[in-house]
Design goal:
By secondary structure, the protein is mainly α. The chain has 13 helices and two strands; from the N terminus they run ααββααααααααααα. It has a single domain, classed as Orthogonal Bundle (MetI-like fold), CATH 1.10.3720.10.
Length: about 300
């Protein structure tokens, strides 16, 4: 029997081969091409020249808007991932409890995630319009404000609105990731904790958080990747205006490539973004795994 197993050691790899081939074709190969292009001279028409070292990276980092774009990207990812995780976790705790209309509530929560990001951004663009936006109309009818407010009075305010839309559409994903973890927790653990005299906060910190941590890890890592690479919300709401003040790295490199025709620096920025994502995801995963090992 052992001899038969030894002879068929290759069988698991055979079953994995289609996935490995697909990953190589659609993930590894394109990444390798982008890395090669970032070290090559690229004309405005897209013709690839010879090796030029780090010239594209130096040009990209030296662009006037680079610092602003990187700061925007940092706050974009931090605010959207951080706040959506906090709100989504709290919402998951509520939806995990039994109450009348829970199924309807879950359906309502998932709706922003189920619709297109372009549609969501367009709707919010309409809501905060100064002249005929729904937000001003509602607040005026309720008597909360006396005259219409310009909700897009500065690029800082516009960027805050972009972050809010990002949070709004990300909350459902976090909620249902956490909810799946909550529903896998054995209810007898809470019953035993109640018998031992543990209160609500003690149950949350000692039972809920440790057992939901794997679900939170998955949602956080995926959120960092998705939010960092998010394009539709910012492009639909502002297109980075004015003067790239509301751009993030992804929208900026798009404008740099297709509008300014600076394909070399745009490719270098995409590599910079890839490296940043790998570092952030790696640090988070290592930190979480160390905490799990300590427990």
């Amino acid at each position: 029997m052992n001899t038969l197993n030894n002879k068929r050691w290759w069988e698991p790899y055979l079953w994995l081969l289609p996935s490995i081939v697909l990953m190589a074709i659609f993930v590894v190969f394109p990444i390798a091409i982008v890395f090669r292009l970032s070290f090559s001279e690229i004309s405005k028409s897209g013709i690839v020249g010879g090796f030029i070292g780090f010239r594209n990276f130096k040009e990209a980092i030296g662009l006037p808007a680079f610092k602003t774009v990187m700061i925007n990207t940092f706050w974009w990812v931090l605010s959207v991932v951080g706040l959506s995780t906090l709100i989504g976790f709290a919402l998951a705790l509520v939806l995990n409890k039994k109450f009348h209309g829970r199924k309807i509530a879950r359906a309502i929560v998932v709706f922003p995630w189920a619709t297109s990001l372009v549609i969501q951004a367009s709707v919010w663009n309409y809501i905060i319009k100064y002249e005929y936006g729904n937000l001003n109309n509602v607040l005026l009818n309720l008597g909360i404000i006396k005259q219409a407010v310009n909700w897009r009075s500065s690029y800082q305010v516009e960027f805050i609105w972009e972050c809010w839309v990002g949070i709004f559409v990300t909350i459902p994903f976090v909620t249902f990731c956490v909810l799946s973890g909550l529903q896998s927790i054995d209810g007898t653990l809470y019953e035993a904790a109640t018998v031992d005299g543990a209160g609500g906060w003690a149950k949350l910190w000692k039972i809920t958080l440790p057992l939901v941590r794997p679900s939170l890890t998955v949602s956080t890592v995926l959120n960092i990747i998705y939010v960092f690479n998010s394009f539709p919300i910012i492009y639909t709401m502002t297109k980075g205006a004015p003067a790239n003040k509301t751009d993030t790295l992804i929208t900026y490199l798009y404008m740099l490539n297709f509008y300014d025709r600076k394909k070399g620096p745009a490719t270098a920025l995409s590599v910079i973004g890839f490296v940043i994502l790998c570092i952030c995801a790696g640090i988070y995963m290592i930190t979480v795994m160390r905490k799990e090992d300590d427990t």
